[in-house]
Write a structure and sequence with these properties.
The chain is an alpha/beta fold. The chain folds into 4 domains: 162 residues, P-loop containing nucleotide triphosphate hydrolases (Rossmann fold), CATH 3.40.50; 65 residues; 187 residues, no CATH class; 40 residues, no CATH class. It is elongated and about 85 Å long. Helix 1 crosses helix 2 and helix 19 crosses helix 20. The protein has a 7-stranded mixed beta sheet, with helices on both faces.
């Protein structure tokens, strides 16, 4: 081991000017998240100079996924421990602890000593040797990914900290970030709502939160500014930004090389609702899947991660369908629904057979992800993004570009108006009301309901018949897609055998010109505005108006 002084923790002071000391010294602009509550709670675990068996902790393991702010927290802790008169040593990797006996001889025995070790998973054997050293003046804080959760290395630590490292909607850190940007942007910008959306979208992962808020509040394209969440989504959830160098840097920082290992197997299976217990364990070790101690809360850590996977698996060389800008957004939403279903495989519906209290991903989320992957593989010029849970106020899928619309997914919709308190509701009227009540700020929308239970004689539709044309139901039992009450395509999934009457699909642009005139005629002298989708609905239904 080299001279121990080499590993003394030092505070970067930006060229010697102590008035400008910043921890961390690197970062985004001059945003500084002090993380006082977390720093103080960790430091309070150590009783100064009292033997370790007094109920306080001698070692703490802080673990979280990549880019969750562990190294920054380490620096903040180092500064606080120095202020508390500790002698602090910092090792950037457990590999640097190559001679524990020598280290123990060199460490002071008459002063409080804190050893901070980053990337503890790089050499677990050496880390275990260090943790075996019980000294009343020695305190050890390790930082790493949850890769060794419930294994020997984790068991050696006396305390673990994981969920507290992430930023939550009510945390002091998010309020700091909101205050920072409120002082720097115009008053008409919805800073609080945008920051909360980004925090939720990133699952509290600090690095992408900081980068994406910087993007939101410093964008200047010479034409528009981001004022609302809807504005942010249009700029952020689009192909141009997702292909940018800035965004790809965030992806690389957050997922690193592990993405190549799991993208086509483990993560995709879990997202599709087909993952095994072993798959979930593998993602948990990377910090990409979260399970609460009571097992009531469990899900993919963030929508950001889910979309990174969707962007990777939905790559195809020759999509067959092209979305035309001559169609209305509603017509194009229907094309997405139809073509996404057409190219799904029988295995995509297996998650419905796994429905239980122990499912790792909700059935509707699993089938929705399989459908979205199918859409992205079969449609040339559409860019879809999976959204955070609808229960938290976000639609399931946002379709950017020409469409600029959204699709909400349900599984076995009901008409009970009994809004579930956990995990959202499958009530058709409640979901429909999210759009009509302006909870969702989208004029172009559609609902896709996967009816996986035994086929019902009647479709589950909103009470307001005006919006029946916006509700599509895929009935798995007879492999038929309905718009409102009318069957519009069967077989809907081409890989499955047709079980009912064949129904040829007729897109609106394929309606004969003479019939288009008939459709337009009844509405020429009325003030009520009908979209082309409403006219198509009438055409398919064989409305008496057209006879």
């Amino acid at each position: 081991m080299r001279d121990l002084a080499t590993y003394r923790f030092k505070i970067p002071n930006n060229g010697g000017d102590k008035s400008k000391e910043r921890i961390p010294s690197e970062g985004i602009g001059d945003v500084l998240l002090k993380r006082l509550h977390l720093v103080n709670s960790i430091c309070e675990m150590f009783d100064k100079g009292v033997p370790f068996d007094n109920g306080k902790y001698q070692s703490v393991y802080v673990h979280g996924m990549r880019a969750s702010g562990k190294t920054q927290l380490l620096k903040l802790l180092g500064k606080k421990l120095l202020d508390d008169k500790f002698e602090v040593y910092h090792f950037t990797s457990s590999k640097m602890l190559n001679n524990i006996p020598e280290l123990m001889d060199l460490l002071p025995k008459d002063r409080l000593v804190a050893v901070l070790v980053d990337e503890v998973q790089s050499d677990p054997t050496t880390m275990v040797d260090l943790l075996k050293e019980h000294r009343s003046n020695l305190f050890i804080i390790g930082f790493g990914v949850p890769q060794y959760l419930k294994t020997n290395i984790t068991a050696m630590f006396q305390e673990e900290i994981t969920s507290d490292i992430f930023i939550t909607k009510d945390s002091d850190e998010l309020q700091e970030l909101i205050s920072y940007w409120k002082d720097r942007v115009a008053k008409d910008i919805a800073v609080k709502e945008i920051c909360e959306y980004i925090c939720e979208y990133c699952g509290g992962q600090i690095y992408p939160i900081l980068k994406f808020t910087e993007f939101a509040f410093t964008l200047d394209d010479g034409q528009s500014r981001i004022k609302s969440v809807a504005d942010f989504m249009k700029h952020f959830l689009n192909q141009k930004y997702k292909h940018s160098v800035e965004y790809q840097k965030v992806v690389k920082r957050c997922v690193g090389t592990e993405l190549d290992v799991v993208v086509h197997n483990t993560f995709e299976r879990v997202l599709r609702g087909q993952g095994s217990d072993a798959d979930v364990v593998a993602l948990t070790r990377l910090g990409w899947y979260y399970i609460s101690e009571d097992r009531k809360k469990r899900d993919i850590r963030s929508t950001f991660l889910a979309n990174v996977i969707l962007e990777r698996v939905a790559i195809t060389e020759d999509p067959k369908i092209y979305i035309s800008d001559t169609n209305t957004p509603q017509e194009n939403l229907e094309l997405l629904i139809v073509n996404g279903l057409a190219n799904m495989e029988s295995s995509d519906f297996e998650c419905a057979n796994k429905r239980s209290k122990d499912e790792w991903v909700k059935v509707e989320d699993g089938m929705s992800m399989s459908w979205a992957i199918s859409v992205s593989k079969s449609v040339r010029n559409v860019f879809m993004e999976f959204q955070s849970r609808a229960a938290q106020g976000r639609v399931d899928f946002y379709c950017n570009g020409i469409i600029d619309g959204v699709i909400e997914n349900l599984c076995d919709a009901t008409k009970t108006m009994n809004i579930a308190s956990k995990g959202g509701s499958q009530d058709i009227d409640e979901h429909h009301s999210r759009f009509t009540s302006q909870k969702y700020q989208w004029s172009n929308w559609a609902i896709l309901n996967f009816e996986m239970s035994k086929s019902k004689e009647e479709r589950i539709l909103p009470r307001d018949e005006t919006y029946h044309s916006r509700v599509y139901t895929y009935v798995h039992a007879d492999n038929t897609l309905y718009q409102g009450k009318a069957p519009i395509k069967s077989p809907a999934v081409l890989s499955l055998k047709p079980t009912g009457r064949k129904v040829d699909y007729i897109p609106f642009q394929h309606i004969p010109e003479k019939d288009r005139k008939k459709i337009d005629a009844p509405f020429n002298n009325t003030k009520r505005a009908f979209s082309s989708m409403s006219k198509l609905w009438l055409y398919r239904y064989g409305s008496k108006i057209l006879r």
